[in-house]
């Protein structure tokens, strides 16, 4: 894998910083929605991050993989939990999701090294 997910998330954050200032009202709404959706509730924050990562795989979004896998590592996800989530994502998304499952595993290992 040639993508560094640490570098990718840093680059995206840098680019979005200016965008957040230029369209602060819509971005405040997006940030509030994200914070509310990912907050602990009936589902744990870890379960929600697993769901978000599965959606990142299904939609083939590298930036999303980076951010959500970083979140998984911060929340203490195990390789077994990630593997099980990826099995469901691949089941639902087929071959293209399998390719992104490899990206998730690469990102998981990279963020664990921090």
Automatic annotation (TrEMBL):
Kindly indicate whether the keyword Oxidoreductase belongs to this entry: yes
Pfam families the UniProt entry points to: CMD
Listed GO MF terms: peroxiredoxin activity
Superkingdom field: Bacteria
Q: Keyword Repressor, does the record have it?
A: no
Coiled-coil segments on the chain, per record: none
- Keywords in alphabetical order: Oxidoreductase, Peroxidase
Where does the Carboxymuconolactone decarboxylase-like domain lie? 27-106
- PANTHER family, A to Z: ALKYL HYDROPEROXIDE REDUCTASE AHPD, BLR3452 PROTEIN
Q: Which NCBIfam families match?
A: ahpD_dom
The identity of this protein, by name, is Alkylhydroperoxidase like protein, AhpD family
Q: What is the lineage of its organism?
A: Bacteria, Pseudomonadati, Pseudomonadota, Betaproteobacteria, Nitrosomonadales
């Amino acid at each position: 894998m040639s993508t560094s997910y640490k570098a990718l998330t840093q680059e995206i954050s840098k680019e979005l910083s200016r965008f957040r200032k230029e369209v602060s009202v819509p971005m405040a709404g997006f940030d509030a929605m994200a914070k509310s959706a990912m907050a602990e509730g009936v589902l744990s924050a870890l379960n929600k991050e697993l769901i978000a990562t599965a959606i990142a795989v299904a939609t083939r979004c590298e930036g999303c993989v980076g951010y959500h896998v970083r979140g998984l590592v911060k929340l203490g996800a195990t390789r077994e939990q990630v593997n099980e989530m990826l099995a469901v994502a691949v089941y639902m998304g087929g071959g293209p999701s399998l390719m992104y499952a490899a990206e998730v595993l690469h990102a998981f290992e990279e963020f664990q090294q921090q």
